[in-house]
Amino acid sequence: MSALLVMALATVTAPDSAPALAAVQKCDKQAMRAMATDEPHRRTQFAAAAYAEQRAIAQERAALLDVQISGTPSGAATTANALAQIDARQKELDDVKAIEKSWRDLFDEVRADFLANCSSGKRNADDK
Length: 128
Known about the structure:
The model has no long low-confidence stretch (mean pLDDT 85). The chain is mostly helical.
């Protein structure tokens, strides 16, 4: 992955689940409100970074395949090595996307749990 895209994806990776789980366990309305407010922006940042990386991978793969088709046999090993590096980037991106999907599933479940179990009469200490 290019250094810029690695940094972009690193800054928008899925958050730690502990605060979300603690917020629903404690029926902490302020914490849930803050997470629910921040989540759409975090998801947008992630999607933009993942899109940029996927696009870069596709462009680099296409360029290498063009070179491979018109290249010399001596350059085949170099091209194969470069394609292997691109495949590794793709696998890394796929892993990041799978983690993001898992986070989104968990966050949606935590939010549903909070709404079902904390909205009707249960109050945290800050609401007294």
